[in-house]
């Protein structure tokens, strides 16, 4: 691996020579030497440095973008070659949107690890937009997202599971006792919703449009857990996956409000960066995920 590029990217990420040296377990003078050598190779300064900050300049921004790409490709190459020499092992960087990542993925990982103990997954939880961005840049090996993935030119998207979403209110909310809520009743409520870029927000907006619901008020949160706590406290109502509320339904702190005549569903998809070759760890995980997909509905049942 090009140590100069690695040092440069780490300094840019950490915005500090000292922290970069600590992260790479080398001395600060060695970090400085790597940066100076890279700048000499490219015949241009890449960083603006003062006693208070270290920042990328215009040339540095260009170099940083391509350096990350080069390091990612090098890592991908070494993993593929390693696969030819021995059984699958090493790290597997998985990104997942909040619903799947927090409520389903832990069950998947536990079963996967029991079969492939030499593969060490690292998990990143973020909204759909962020996960797809990181997959497209090679920062994640695979993403699991709901809703529209985007980045059609740089990633492959494979649907593998279906999820049901329901209108949710506190068990003491007046709507908890109705046989079926109307659109007029729902739009009089304050809706607690996820942020833009979230797959849950995407399906919520789709439901609003499909059923002509215009909420009188909305509160936006970046966390499903905070939304559940807010709804339980009586702040408003929301739309969530049955995977996300299975425990609350069991404990009867939240109630699914009958609304639509048919179930409201959405698809979950695997997102991978386009490539002719994938490391064995990625192949095994995608195959395992597809095999496990018929069992996923049981996670949301109470």
UniProtKB/TrEMBL annotation:
Protein keywords: DNA-binding, Transcription, Transcription regulation
CDD domains: PBP2_CysL_like
Record InterPro entries: LysR_HTH_N, LysR_subst-bd, WH-like_DNA-bd_sf, WH_DNA-bd_sf
Annotated family: Belongs to the LysR transcriptional regulatory family.
Protein name: LysR family transcriptional regulator
One function term, GO molecular function aspect: DNA-binding transcription factor activity
Pfam families linked to this entry: HTH_1, LysR_substrate
